[in-house]
Amino acid sequence: MFLDLFAGHSAPLSCAAKTANIDHFSPFDIEFNATCDILNDDLFENLLKLAHSGLVGAVWSAPPCRFYSTLRKNDGGPPPLRSKEFIDGFPSLSTYQKRQVQESKEIHRRSDLICIAVFQQGGFAGKEQPLNSIAWKEPSSQQFVEQCSCYFVATPACKWGLDFFKYWAVAATSDHISNLAGHCSHRDHMDFRGKRLPDGSYISALTAEYPSAFASAIIDIISPWVSKSSLMNQDLSTWRSLLSRNPISKGPRITDGAGDISSANWTIPQSTDFFKSLRQVWIKRILATKLHTKVVDACQRHQSDPSISEDELLPFLNDIQHSFSSTSLHFTIPDHQPFRLQLLHSLYSSSPKTLIQRLPPYFKKAFLLELSHSLNL
User: Fold this and answer.
1) How far apart, in whole angstroms, are the C-alpha atoms of residue 86 and residue 111?
2) Pairwise CA distance, residues 90 & 80, whole Å
3) How confident is the model at residue 13 (pLDDT cuts 50, 70, 90)?
4) Residue 171 pairs with which residues in a beta bridge?
5) Helices (H), 70-210
6) Contact (Cβ atoms closer than 8 angstroms) between residue 57 and residue 2
7) Measured on CA atoms in the order 89, 90, 91, 93, is the torsion positive or negative?
8) Which residues pair with 58 in a beta bridge?
9) Three-state SS for 6?
10) Which residues contact 208 (CB under 8 A, 6 or more apart)?
């Protein structure tokens, strides 16, 4: 499902999600709903548990930036509270201003933790702030960008039909956000800095809300991560009722070291299980001989030598030879490699074509290139 954090008064992303018929929770924003205060510890804990549950396929967070804005000047309007050099506030701030700084910092920190949690469960996470916002200098923002290996793009308001000069910056966990990127070459946009509306509010506040075209483009990007089962505007307080009663069949998604996503669960295989018999034999042998405890112990002791001896490894190699008796296998280890790459190449070549075809093209190409280079093929 889609989680729309700091949705804005009219919640354009949630509206676009409804139009696209993707499952989503009710929009979260204190301006939209007075109970949506992320500084409330109980509510934040509920959101964080939701983020870790695996229910959230995509989260988009746009926390308030007004206390990080570089538009604040000492010109009679709201004074600046911080700078890049004083990210935690100027020393001269009043007690009230210090509280504003601390609360805005905590809002961003909690937002970033939720984004990281969703990504850790294999979901999409995106954060938006103005390009010149000091919020990007916050440690929590940098933690999100670095820990989740985020992509970063900037897009001008005029790309989406608005006639003022502003850039939105987006950090997200997928390179699909490159579709949002743009550049403004105009010189005659309206300058809204320091200008007010008839009611006394600043025009700059209106520029924070996304136009419908921008919101639709974002939803198009995140839609592959989100289900479509008519779960619209779900109450955030009752998310536990949406959890599957069979966690084995629908466990949380896991992002592996290569950035790919899977359930990391072979209890119910998602495709033909070509190596089922071999795997079952190996699991029984590993448990019977307690080889798994040897591996764990070696890791804890930072052991550099192989944790499994050649004698212990021999039955596994014999199993491979027996399972692929019609294939010429090479079990030697090249002098310049710590792995049996020739064996891996033989297994790859003899695997069923359907298994090979399921591999992504870029993976097959990179895999074969590496093998060819290492084995001088």
Assistant:
1) 21
2) 9
3) very high
4) 127, 152
5) 95-120, 139-147
6) yes
7) negative
8) 2, 124
9) coil
10) 8, 62, 65
Domains of the chain: 2-242 (3.40.50), 267-375 (no CATH)
Shortest CA distance to 101 belongs to which of 77, 125, 79, 131? 79
**Main-chain phi, psi angles of 40, to 5 degrees:** -75, 115
pLDDT band at 15 (very low <50, low <70, confident <90, very high): very high
Residues contacting 344, CB < 8 A, separation 6+: 371
Q: Is the pLDDT of residue 57 over 60?
A: yes
The helix/strand/coil state of 89 is: coil
Question: Does an H or E element contain 261, and which?
Answer: strand 261-262
How many residues in the chain?
Answer: 377
Amino acid at 102: Q
Q: Which residues on neighbouring strands pair with residue 5, listed in sequence order?
A: 28, 61
Task: Note if the pTM is more than 0.70.
Answer: no
Place of tokens 């499994």: 308
Torsion sign over Cα 242, 247, 252, 258: negative
Residue type, 294: K
